[in-house]
Structure formats: structure tokens, C-alpha cells
Amino acid sequence: MKNIRFIAVALIMVFGLVSFTNQGPSTKYKCMIQLTNYTGEGAYVAISLINPEGDYEQTLFVQGDDNEWYNTLESWWKFYGKKRNNIDAITGATISGGERSINVIEIEDSKIDAGYSIRFETAVEDQEYYTQDVEFPLTSETVKSKAEGRGFIRYVRMMPN
What does the pLDDT look like over 3-61, one tens digit per residue? Predict the structure, then answer.
């Protein structure tokens, strides 16, 4: 009986260590979001890594630290709301019309030029919701470029940190 308990404890420790290992080398990027000159409440923005199949894979950053309003980012919420991973380290305050925000996001190097994309999803209380306000393929060129928005975002500019 002691051997079985020892084996069970050892397996739990091994699986615990495996779950905390790093994914692989990554690079940090400065990401500037410039909003349009709209009126109203601050915008919630979810920045997500989208896999080659078009599904959410990872939350990279969230503008808006009041989780009461996360469900207004409807598509992202379907992904995040199921797991409710701790995203405290990658959240910041909402940004209002005409303002800009500069944040640092970290992306695994293996995701660049591998069919992944980055999506910027926006929502403003009592206003529109844009699932793909900005979305672009994640390539070695686009992580150093500017992309125009379709909704509350005027543009996004990325550059290696």
C-alpha cells in the first residue's frame, strides 16, 4: 500500500513539473493600439493568438481589467470563459476614444511564419462589438508593421521590443 501511495505522489509531482515547463523561445513585442475618436466608455480589447485552423489558442493581452465586462468580447469570451485562466499579468486599463496604449506582448517564436494570426477584438459599453477589429497573419514582416482597424481601432503598430 505504501508503494502505491509513493508512486501516486511521484506521478503527481512529475506531471506538475511538466505543466510548468516553458513552451519554447519567445520574443517580446511592443504593441501600440491607437483608437478612433469615438465618444463613450473606454474600449475593452482582447489580443489573441489564433491558430492555423482559425481557433483561439492563447490570450496575449486584455485592455480592461474589470472582468465583469469580459463577456462583451463575445467570441473571445467563449474561449476564455470556459477555462478562466488567470490573466492578471496581461491586463491593463481600458482606453478611451482617441487615446493610444502601448503594451508588451510575448509571442512564441515557433508561431511566427507558421500559419498563426493575431486578432484584436473590441467592445464598448452600449455600442458596437467587433470580432475582428484588426486581424493579420503572424509573419516576420507583420510583427514589424502597422495594420488598420475596422471599428474602434484606428491602427495597431507592432515592433520587436
Answer: 555 444 444 444 444 444 456 899 999 999 999 999 999 999 999 999 999 999 999 99
For residue 137, which amino acid is it?
P
Catalogue the E-assigned strands of 83-137: 91-92, 100-108, 117-123, 129-137
Going across the sheet that includes 153-160, the strands are 100-108, 26-35, 153-160, 146-148
Burial (CB count within 10 angstroms: exposed 0-12, middle 13-18, buried 19+), residue 22: exposed
Q: Can you name the residues that pair with 49 across neighbouring β-strands?
A: 58, 118
pLDDT tens readout for residues 92-132? 899 999 999 999 999 999 999 999 999 999 999 999 999 99
